[in-house]
Amino acid sequence: MRAMNPDAHGPDAAPTFGPQARRHTRPVDIGGVTVGGGAPVVVQSMTNTDTADIDGTVKQVAQLWRAGSELVRLTVNTAEAAAAVPRIRDKLAMMNAPVPLIGDFHYNGHQLLAGEPACAEALAKYRINPGNVGFGKKRDSQFATLIEFAIKYGKPVRIGANWGSLDQALATRLMDENHERAVPWEAGRVLREALIRSALDSAGRAVELGLPPERIVLSAKVSGVQELIAVYRELARRGDHALHLGLTEAGIGSKGIVASSAALAVLMQEGIGDTIRISLTPEPGQSRTNEVVVAQELLQTMGLRAFTPMVTACPGCGRTTSTFFQELAQKVQEHVRARMPEWKVTHPGAENLTLAVMGCVVNGPGESRHANIGISLPGTGEAPSAPVFEDGEKTVTLRGERIADEFVGLIDSYVERHYGGPRPD
Fold this sequence. Notes:
TIM Barrel, 2 domains, 17 strands, globular, 4-hydroxy-3-methylbut-2-enyl-diphosphate synthase activity (flavodoxin), isoprene biosynthesis, iron ion binding, IspG_bac-typ, IspG_TIM
């Protein structure tokens, strides 16, 4: 919530702190996961397997779910993919991985759902792109068919407009209208308006067809940071539908992470956004789960949710010529993330634990005291000892070759003492 002095504009007004109050949106139930309505921002992801490959898709969905993805989207583009969806759902259930599945439809969704009604029933939500649901006179009837399936099976839909597949008829009409303005808008603004209108007008049509507003999530994705911020501010201003945030085609590696974080952080700081996906291009050999980790870390660093203990670690400098503190920071982060699925059940609250791994005496003791548990390693020329602090108090000094293992053991002991006991029902 935004903290503010009652005399907000006076000389003694307190500066604002923290994100603005969440924008009011309608809650949408997606297979038991609530998106919007004040619920915590939901993390979702998407597979990159061939959905017709049942075993490969089940394996990846389970990996994404175990990493923390609360919803997982699948490509449904062929009859074989549609036929596979119920079997994927059933296998996941047998693995005790009951993650809601979202079907991503383009061009032929109306045909696939008609041909495979079991797919329509198995999915928790349908994603419909108004830019390519159909063309010309077929567009309205094919869109209506998809909405009718959603109504029949009680499913929510995401109406997801996209910069790369914008409804060209709508864009052309708005361009023509723009020419009639006394002061025409610049072309970029017209295209942003077309994207916004594509989502909003399609949502309005879905409601006219009988789909309750409480079963609609909207998105309007672009690949530019400033464009995305502008589009979602307008979507938020014009309605109360739950919003799915994501920078489309964000990119690979640090570029994709930075661009997505820059755009989504601004919007969520303004209270905009109910579910997020970080659309990263995986680097060769990289796990698809990385997009889930980035989404979680973005929400956690902003103070919006907690998923796993996070490690504060110094970047290193000329005082820290050893790489040991870097290796320890990595080991600690990997350890707590690996333990978190178990701790989530047996040690509720452990996700809020704060940790510090510091490399020298300059900031080490101070940062370690700020954390629940922290260690200050010796820098170049310092005494070969590493004091450990718990909740601001020095508890032990570690020395020798087993500092890493001993410190990890101290973390486990701290979690056991402070967060022991199953989560109450």
